Amino acid sequence: MASAASSLISRLLPVLDGFAIEVPSWGFADTGTRFGKFVQDAAAIDLSDKLSDAGHVHALTGCCPTVAVHVLWDFKPGQDPKAVAKLAEEKGTRIGSINPNLFQDQEYKWGSFSNADAAVRARALQHCYDSVAIGKAVGSEYLSLWFADGTNYPGQESIRARKQRFEEALKALHKRLAPGQTMLVEYKPFEPAFYATDIADWGMAYVLSKKAGPRAKVLVDTGHHYSGQNIEQIVAFLLDEGMLGGFHFNDRRYADDDLTLGSIDPYQVFRIFHEIHSFTAERGEAPKIAYMIDQSHNEKPKIEATLQTVMMAQELFAKAALVDHAALLRAQQAQDVVSAELELKKAFFTDVSPALKVWRKQKSLPADPLVAHRKSGYAAAAGRERAQRRKDLGISAGGSYA
Prior knowledge:
Blueprint: H1 2-17, E1 23-24, E2 31-33, E3 36-38, H2 47-61, E4 66-70, H3 71-74, H4 81-90, E5 94-99, H5 118-138, E6 142-145, E7 150-151, H6 159-176, E8 182-186, E9 196-197, H7 202-212, E10 216-221, H8 231-240, E11 244-249, H9 266-283, E12 290-293, H10 302-320, H11 325-333, H12 337-348, H13 353-362, H14 369-376, H15 378-393
Parallel strand pairs: 1-4, 4-5, 6-8, 8-10, 10-11, 11-12
Antiparallel strand pairs: 2-3, 7-9
């Protein structure tokens, strides 16, 4: 029995070593809904706060070395990007993916890359070119693109014309990528465009990425799907096509709910990870995938929610690595549906906490990052200082994420 436990632990330690998760700067700031912003005393006010929180999460978990940044929210006009990278290092983290903002300014009311106005498209492209330059300056590998472009009413615009404008703009942007940079193209079925979102599903993102160039890949946000959609099938298709570039982790009850990972359906996340491990076992090499979190919490404390997602992702990634691929293949070849399903269930219900405990102990990390955070006093101290600073600055409820 002890031998089996020891074998499981030794099997999972390298799996955990290779699993890094990027946290989002905006996940630490005050956020809200379309109806307003909800303030938390300990929420980050500025980039320094966000980087401090990200560094704190990494210090507790040991697997979150980078923080995603939003260009308009996290970089001041004229600011030296290298100064931001230096500040991140001082806070115990590094700058990760660069996220252009192509939805906030008034010019983008009718779209950005698909806008019928050539001047607006040029502005959007220039912003992305500037984001590429920022990424190059800070050593970022990823340019992460999400677009709010779309239409709300039938006949509002030509769907094909908007598609063609997107193709042209993405090709132009791909040509500007710095060596070593990858362009991630995200999709979303609706919101804020409720009739025809310009990149509404993985197939549209796949086609546009293919046409853009070899360093354009699809980004799968686990919340950006209709209820009941088979996300692991999408992941399997993209893996087989060599087009899966990254994830934005969250969970959902309906669509883009931004819930902590696994809070609604941990088995779905497990099945997604299983497809990745299955692909790795078949090819003999793990695919290059950017694992990122994209969540904005109004009710849960920001850092606690982030820690919950990170810890759940580690647990489910480890569980999925325990699937016996040889046994699964035998069951599949024999059309033994029950045994095939049970191979997945056996791994899913395996307790991997002993392996996580050993992994964290080897890296001098707390056995339970969430408990350690609550005992640290970090949130209380940040809450006192930031609440006073928010008061001094006259910051109250508002309507934006940052």
